[in-house]
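Cross-posting from the modeling subforum.

Setting up a comparison between two proteins and wanted a second pair of eyes on the formatting. Protein 1 (sequence, then structure tokens):
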Amino acid sequence: MATPTHILVFRFSALGDVAMTVPVIKLLLQQYPHLQVTYVSTAFVAPLFAGIERLHFHVIEPKGKHKGFRGLYALKKELRQHHFDAIADLHNVLRTQILRSFFLLSGKTTAVIDKGRKEKAELTRVNGKVLRPLKSTFQRYAEVFAELGVPVNLHGDIPKQKMPEDGNVAKSSGNERSIGIAPFAKHAEKTYPPEKMQEVIALLVKEKELKIYLFGGKEDAATLNSWAAVSPQIISVAGAMPFSEELGLISRMDLMVSMDSANMHLASLFGVPVVSIWGSTHPLAGFYGWHQDPKNIVQVDLYCRPCSVFGNRKCYRGDLACLHSINPVTVYDRIAQQLYKQQTS
């Protein structure tokens, strides 16, 4: 099999999973200077790939012109113009399967991600869990490229990404530190109880040299604005800026606090340490942040954990003990330890 010179990459969602492809793509292009990549995804995630040399971003509009079978066929015609010679399907869903079928007779070399569904089911089943660390999602992505003849060394170094300076971006002065807190996740089973997170914030604002930024979507803005109203040290940016500017803000945090959510992965792209809180999901499933320190994981050991890979299963106990049993002081202490480590290093 000839080494490819131009790879078409599919990964349409979700935000955290797309973010996890970024370091793998960067290392791939760094280790193969002859290679070009056309990355196909939604327009929203395009800022994640800004400035990556030899990468072209092609937008899919799944709710617009690329909706349905006819829309995907139209997308196929658009993609042919890139003259790629291999396909890396990092998503393996119905849309990408249909797209791959369109190119089946064209002789393009194709490789597809193995999501490890069997071992993930063993990890999360109610009875007889098999608790072992599974391959990281980064490894699974890298294996796709290895199948195409371009194995990626995940231990390679990539420069920490920095976003352009912006007037809305935090700038620490003197001993001031900036902490980002992303208190919500898509599912309740991955979300630390808001009242407990408010207790964490109440402990943090006692540190007068801390500036706290609250991250969330437009749907979280009213809640987070009310949290921010209690102290001038707290600033809510929920739904207040474009994604590219939000990335710029995240890149300049001294520390991020998040759930097992996209914000953990976004901060990881910029080398920002993350204190992550885990509920029904577990780092063993392979979704921990790129180069994050396992010591910054906050979780409790329960016989029922993990009960879900993505957090989309209802708590069968009905009490979300995995989250409610985490003391806010524990979260605060982990944050304080990381900040102290930065100050003394």
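Protein 2 (same layout):
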Amino acid sequence: MNIIAAKPKFTPEDLLTMRDGDRFELVDGKLVEKPMSTWSSFIGGLVYHLLIDYCLKHKVGWAWPADLTYRCFPFAPERLRKPDVSFIRQARLTHGHVFSGYCPIAPDLAVEILSPNDLASEIEEKIEEYQRAGVRLIWIVNPDLRTVRIHRLDGTISGLHEQDLLSGEDVITGFQVRVADLFPPADMMPPAPPAASETSGT
């Protein structure tokens, strides 16, 4: 992540009036740009597609892609976070929640897709913040390893691989997919660049 420090301190209200304010998270008054690689952005789209398809069919709640901003941290009222994918149960939503500038309630599920520029410390900080805000389920998706790490509000953690089933547990009742379904099949993957020896003709 890149921290933009052109102004001593920004507020959530500043971001609402900025032309490109929806690109940033806000941490301790500093704008934090959240660039996603092409690969992680595509994976985020797949995860969102799987969730929104289930939500619309079963009417269990709403799912959002990476452009929804949350202002839901009682311990840091000025903090803004943008999970790559998120979900809120239908029973928790009101008209005001849906049509407010920032979502004022914590999601039930937050999904973070790892990008090459992500630092482990930043991801761990987000996990702690989400859990302090009451997020019941967090998925950390690793596109390179094709794995998912699950963090629950009770402190338990699970690691899943491609052959495993990923479920919504008691947060998105009935939702279940193979971890492999979060990633493109092998025959869709672009070819790897040629090795250096091949390009040099040796």
